[in-house]
Amino acid sequence: MRTSSEQNKELVLKAFDTLFNKRDYGAAEKFWSPQYLQHSALIEPGRAGLFSLVRSAPQALRWEHGVIMAEDDLVMLHSRYSGNGAPRNLIGVDIIRVKDGAFVEHWDVLQDEATQQESRSGLPMFGTAFPEPDHHAAAAPLTIAQARTIVEPLYDALNQPSKKDVAALLAKACHPDYRSYGTNEDWLTREQLAEVFKMMGLAVPDLRWTIEDIRAFGDQIVVRGRASGTPTGELFGAKPTGKSFKTMALDLFTVKNGKLAAAYHVENWMAALQQVRK
To answer: How far apart are CA 122 and CA 232, in angstroms?
Structure first.
């Protein structure tokens, strides 16, 4: 039988992956107690403060674990937080108190990760190797021209999708682990998004999606788009009437190494369906 310390270590590793890597806030709630106490200079109080911090972090955020130790109701975890929007990875030691299978209290110590040139010991702070140089260098802000080049294949896939190799166009624009968020919590993979585009192309053969405005902020791109077309098949539950629609869409993309890593998108489909049904 596993000891309680072994169970607690397994619980902490699963919880951190669920929250920081999977961004599954609903599933994460079962790990963090509603009465969770947060001892941190960087995080607002309670479970809500922690979840709010993670929600505001870039989609490129990744958590990795190193050494983990447990004794009685305490677990101590050595971690690396990369893709956090800062020039440096953060190396942290988290101490978590577990009670009845949930986290009730937490302390942390965080420090910027040193490069090999900066390390007086000559040894890495985390794992067996120093981070790659591009983990530390702050990427130059995207220009509008660069932003347009990056997103154009995705919008090309939305123009008459039934006539395009949608999967290839999305692969050109997006990373394999791309996440397309329709809500703050729910997302589609790149492959699932390709199927949605194809479905829309079948329902609206003349679908047209144009970039009306584009802005770039650091590693993020904001696009105001226009979607239009005349459905010949059922679209989101609405039967075709021969009438056309025009509607607006807003997309917030995060870029990593020249490709799209994630997007949050909002489309005014209610207005579009009202136009079709008139």
So the answer is: 66
Structure tokens at 259: 């490709």
Order of strands across the sheet with 208-217? Answer: 187-188, 174-181, 259-267, 245-256, 220-229, 208-217
Helices 166-173 and 144-157: crossing angle in degrees, nearest 10, is 160
CB 142 within 8 A of CB 218: yes
Smallest CA-to-CA distance from 80 within 7, 25, 16 is with 16
- Which among 89, 24, 59 is positioned nearest to 260, based on CA atoms? 59
CB 267 within 8 A of CB 249: yes
- Cα–Cα distance measured from residue 142 to residue 215, given in angstroms and rounded to the nearest whole number: 9
Report residue 136's pLDDT band, with 50, 70 and 90 as the boundaries: very low
User: Please, which residues have CB within 8 angstroms of residue 24's CB and are 6 or more apart in sequence?
Assistant: 18, 185
Enumerate the domain spans of the chain.
4-135, 144-277
Instruction: Tell me which residue of 130, 126, 140, 131 sits closest to 80, measured CA to CA.
Output: 126
Task: Supply the pTM of this predicted model.
Answer: 0.55
CATH code of 4-135, in short, is 3.10.450.50
Treating both helix axes as pointing N-terminal to C-terminal, what angle do 166-173 and 190-203 enclose, rounded to 10 degrees?
Answer: 140
Q: What is the pLDDT of residues 92-124, one digit of tens each?
A: 999 999 999 999 999 999 999 988 888 889 999
pLDDT attached to residue 57: 84
pLDDT above 60: residue 12: yes
Q: Which residues pair with 103 in a beta bridge?
A: 32, 98
Q: How many CB atoms lie within 10 A of CB 3?
A: 9
Please state which CATH class domain 144-277 belongs to.
alpha beta
